[in-house]
Structure formats: structure tokens, C-alpha cells
Amino acid sequence: MINRITIVCMLLVAFAACSSDTKPTMDEVEPALKTYLLAEKARTCNGKVEVERLTVTGVGEFDKQWGGWPVYATFAVTCFDGGNRTTWESNDPSEKVMTSLVRKNAAGDYECFIPDMFRDAQEQMKKQLENMMKK
């Protein structure tokens, strides 16, 4: 009986830590955003990926629908693949277009993410553009 109570208490504490209402600061978000940007660019890069510039310009209010705080940033992330160099960048410092969302994970660290619905829409648009370019 005591073991079950202990487990339930531990789960409640972990849940409370993951669902904190305290908005993260821009400094707290920056390492998670850098990790996210590197991983995103690496999905389409066979070479080395480097964050050349990153400035978090804002963290919005918690969005219950998506489960995180919107993060706004300017950045430049470059893929160095042999002699080729491609850069993914955003130079809009306003809070009109979010770069990602941020949430606390089970370990209590911040992690940036994009909801699957957005990722699926991006992939579909990319395929449509590729098909249009072939014509």
C-alpha cells in the first residue's frame, strides 16, 4: 500500500513540474531552441550543421491547445555539405511568426517542438512545391 502511495505522489510531483505555469525567460529558452534548430536542419542536411546566429526575441503566453509557450527568434542555421552551403534563416524580430513552442519535459528541462499538425502541413507544402518545380 505504501509503495502505491509513494508512486502516486512521485507521479503528481513530476506532473506538476512538467505543467508549470511559470513562463520561461528568453535565456532559459535559448539552449533548447538551439538544439531544436540544429535537429531540424539536420533532417535535410547530410553534412555539418551550425547555428551561426540566434537571438530569442520573445516568449509568448502559454497556449493550452498546443501545450507550450510560443517562442519568437531571429536565427541563421547553415548546412555545410561538401562544397555546398545552405542556410535556413528568419530575420523577423516581431512576434508574428513563432519559431517553435517550448515546454518542460519529464526531467524538468525546457524543450522546443513543433506540433505534428504543423510538421505534416510543412511536409505537404514541400512536396507540392517539388512537384510544381518538376513541371
Strand content: 25-35%
Instruction: Write down the Rg.
Output: 18 Å
Domain count, please report it. 1
Extended strand count: 5
Termini gap: 68 Å
Question: Care to describe what's here?
Answer:
The protein is an alpha+beta fold and 135 residues long. The protein has helices at 2-18, 26-42, 116-134, and strands spanning 48-59, 69-81, 84-90, 100-104, 110-113. The protein has one domain (2-134). The protein has three helices and five strands. Strands 1, 2, 3, 4 and 5 form a five-stranded antiparallel β-sheet that branches. It is globular, with a radius of gyration of 18 Å. The model is unreliable at 8-18 (pLDDT under 50).
Brief description of this entry?
39% of the residues lie in helices and 30% in strands.
Highlighted features:
5-stranded antiparallel β-sheet; alpha+beta; 39% helix; 135 residues
Give me the secondary-structure topology.
Elements: H1 2-18, H2 26-42, E1 48-59, E2 69-81, E3 84-90, E4 100-104, E5 110-113, H3 116-134
Antiparallel strand pairs: 1-2, 2-3, 2-4, 4-5
